[in-house]
Design goal:
Layout: E1 2-7, H1 12-24, E2 30-38, H2 45-50, H3 57-80, E3 85-93, H4 96-107, E4 111-116, H5 129-137, E5 142-146, E6 156-160, H6 173-182, E7 185-191, H7 198-210, E8 216-221, H8 226-236, E9 241-245, H9 250-257, H10 260-265, E10 272-275
Parallel strand pairs: 1-2, 1-4, 2-3, 4-5, 6-7, 6-9, 7-8, 9-10
Antiparallel strand pairs: 5-10
Length: 280
């Protein structure tokens, strides 16, 4: 049974990600942990004025969050009526990333699914700050769902690799699970004009063996701009999820390091799966 963590701040964006998650795993037995993580700075002075003398900031925040999660879970059960799914409420009072990491460890989480506003709006940011921090600092795979993105048939997934990384089988488990569940084909994208080294050929052979039994193709994109090459491929080939590993992956590192104006041009409007590479 899969264990899925669903962080929420009760925004429309986060609720959309929760609904995407439930539909993504509609045919899979799952335990969904809906978590809200509060911090003291989120408690504004107006709220303090309405509190009774016996109440505390902590208990007031926690009680409100618990009631809100209860409502979310009730609506999910009513909407989907899926006997394969179980829902649990979690509320924490902590730093967001620390709270997510602790939940992942205590509940043996297989995948984090959370919303992101995507590369749009006046802020010109690629991901929300919480989503970006979770991607960078959590060992558990993260599936970020862009604002307004609805679940549709997962017939095609793109996985980027420079073939320079030595993968461990567990690194790609989240991608393998989703692909098997939906019988998705996987396009393994490599953006380069250079000939592969012996090490790259070895790692490419590993990927070929790992995805044996699944429809998969190796696609070489000869381009100098990795961002636009992948973006164009996504748009031209009806890709439903973009996946990559996070450690020592130049694309992801450059993605977060880019200036905001540049990042704004890289418009990811499909779910984005990030998995940590556990081997040096």
């Amino acid at each position: 049974m899969k264990s899925i963590l669903l962080p929420t701040d009760f925004s429309k964006n986060s609720i959309n990600a929760i609904n995407y998650a439930v539909e993504l795993f509609k045919d899979e037995p799952c335990e969904f942990y809906v978590i809200n993580i509060q911090k003291a700075s989120s408690f504004v002075s107006d709220d303090l004025m309405t509190m009774t003398s016996s109440a505390t900031i902590y208990h007031t925040l926690i009680d409100i969050a618990k009631k809100s999660i209860k409502n979310i879970i009730s609506e999910l059960k009513e909407t989907y009526t899926n006997n394969l799914h179980k829902f649990y409420s979690m509320v924490d009072y902590d730093n967001f990333v620390d709270g997510v990491n602790q939940a992942c460890e205590s509940r043996h989480i297989d995948l984090i699914i959370m919303g992101t506003k995507g590369a749009s709006g006046a802020e010109k940011v690629l991901f929300g700050s919480n989503t970006a921090r979770v991607m960078q600092r959590c060992a558990t795979p993260v599936l970020a769902i862009p604002d307004g993105c609805k679940f549709s048939k997962l017939d095609r997934i793109a996985f980027t690799s420079n073939y320079s990384i030595k993968y461990h089988k567990e690194d790609l488990q989240a991608l393998l699970n989703v692909s098997k569940l939906h019988k998705s084909s996987i396009d393994i994208l490599h953006v380069s004009k250079e000939k592969l080294t012996e090490t790259q050929e070895t790692n490419k052979t590993f990927l070929d063996a790992y995805f044996k039994g699944l429809s998969h193709d190796f696609v070489n994109l000869e381009a100098s701009d990795i961002f636009h090459a992948i973006q164009d491929y996504i748009q031209n080939n009806n890709i439903k999820i973009l996946a990559m590993t996070s450690r020592h992956h130049s694309f992801l590192e450059r993605l977060f390091a880019r200036q905001l104006v540049e990042a704004f041009a890289f418009d990811i409007d499909i779910p984005f799966l990030v998995m940590e590479n556990s081997m040096e």
